[in-house]
Design goal:
The chain has two helices and four strands; from the N terminus they run E-H-E-H-E-E. The chain is of the alpha+beta class.
């Protein structure tokens, strides 16, 4: 009996910085996120933990507006790559 090949397992992107924003409200979350992203080097990845109920809608929209790349969104965990200058 031959063994069936296993599908490849997706490896999560490496995080250069981790921030647990807990249940910080989205207005404050976005303001603090902006500062954290500006402090990072282009191409670095932030692993953000955000439990605010609005985060699943607000964070992807913020990434689209700012040019940062949302690599993955599995609430409450979001992986965001800082845009190139």
């Amino acid at each position: 009996m031959t063994e069936m090949p296993r599908p490849p397992v997706a490896t999560p992107p490496h995080a250069d910085l981790v921030w647990d924003a807990d249940d910080l409200a989205c207005g404050d979350l976005i303001l603090q996120l902006r500062g954290r992203m500006e402090a990072m080097s282009p191409g670095q990845v932030l692993r953000l933990i955000a439990r605010d109920p609005g985060a699943p809608e607000d964070l992807p929209a913020w990434c689209r507006l700012t040019g940062h790349t949302l690599l993955s969104a599995t609430p409450p965990v979001y992986m965001i790559r800082r845009k190139e200058r």
